[in-house]
Amino acid sequence: MMVDLNGDDLDILIRSESNNYDRMKELKAFDETKAGVKGLVDAGIKEIPRIFISTTAEDDDIKKNAGSPSKEFSIPVIDLGEINKGDDHQRKLIIDQVISSCENFGFFQVVNHGVPINLMDEMLQKVRMFHEQPAEARAAFYTRNLGGKSNYLSNFDLFQAPSANWRDTYYCFMAPTPAKPEEIPIILRDTMMKYSDHIEKLGLEVFELVSEGLGLKPNYPECWALLCHYYPECPQPELTIGTSKHADSDFLTILLQDNHISGLQVLHQNQWVDVPPVPGALIVNVGDLLQTSLMSNDRLKSVEHRVLTNLEYPPASVACFFHGTHLEQPTRKYGPIKELLLETDRPKYGETAIDEYIRHYNAKGLDGKSALTLFKL
Questions:
Q1: Contact assessment for residue 276 and residue 69, using Cβ atoms and an 8 Å cutoff
Q2: Is 265 within 8 Å of 107 (Cβ atoms)?
Q3: Whole-model pTM?
Q4: Which of 4, 45, 257, 349 places its Cα 20 to 30 Å from the Cα of 292?
């Protein structure tokens, strides 16, 4: 059922008086529109619905206009252009940069990575076109079935998180059993499939570099998905957030961020650091699973990050989540890699099945707390 956002149902979403506030009713009213946050903006709201007002302590600095980003640190930028030219010394230098970035920052950017710049620009353009088309066209793909291969929704954790994020997402599963072409929105279809081919090659290369840097045999991801985020302009950006503080639930993420503004911030040494767009660059970060805390016993860092909202410009981004094998082998257990443990080390995490971790991550939502806490020994 589609809700008329110009009618009485819009009133449900914008009431703020405590004696009238029924959070679950508002959440359901928003979800039933199938129009996402963009639908609210298109309806001309001047105040954000209460369900979007940030309530977590970690985001208090946003509401108080405090917590200014650090200007003394920037995410490392690594040039991959020399990696395949047969120069062993240059290859080692690049691998050392990758491992150092994973150990100390959890984030780095790559340039000369092999993904055509014009394809990156086209991918962002098509994401915008999808999210900015009439609500009825988007609604055809709207679902809360997180097991689907081609989904559009707003806030995967809408009914779990303390507050909703100002963000809409189209999700497409690309491997090992991808969504059928006819299941992908026609606006995105051709460009997304071309982009996926290139980003797969880059992902395999990064996994190879990390494995080599750790002294391990190459460990390649077997499944991945593309998440196409859109952060509509927000009338009250000081009250809400595009994506709450979190670490990624995957093995590795490669992010294409907007050319103009991203709003992405990384938490480094208890300070938020802006990650401004670098022309032609892609952002790489480690997640909670393979090359991260669970697998490397805290040697590699799965770092928390967030996305801010803004009043005037709606950023778009495309995140490629490399999940590993959990959809094909959901009960396979992972734990700290024994080859990485010194005799004096003890495992900091128990062996965990991927589906168990993903269920826990999705059930708790983006509540500002680490999903790894449950699995610590």
A1: no
A2: no
A3: 0.85
A4: 257
- Count of helix runs (H) and strand runs (E) in the chain: 10, 14
Give tens-digit pLDDT for 129-146.
999 999 999 999 999 987
- Residue 311's CB is within 10 A of a number of other CB atoms, namely 10
Angle among Cα 302, 305, 307 to the nearest 5 degrees reads 155
Structure tokens at 195: 């982009």
Residue 361 CB: number of other CB atoms within 10 A? 22
Report the distance separating Cα 168 and Cα 189, nearest Å: 18
CA distance 324 to 79: 25
What per-residue confidence (pLDDT) applies to 349? 62
Selection from 276, 377, 277 nearest residue 336 by Cα: 377
Q: Coil, strand or helix: which one is 109? A: strand
Over the stretch 46-92, which tens digit does the pLDDT of each residue have? 999 999 999 865 554 554 344 455 566 789 999 999 887 778 899 99
Whether the Cβ atoms of residue 168 and residue 229 lie closer than 8 Å to each other: yes
Task: Return the H-helix or E-strand segment holding 123.
Answer: helix 117-132
Per residue in 262-288, pLDDT (tens digit) is 899 999 888 899 999 999 999 999 887
Amino acid at 73: F
Which of 317, 323, 316 lies closest to 174, judged by CA?
A: 323
The first and second tokens of residue 317, run together, are 């981004």
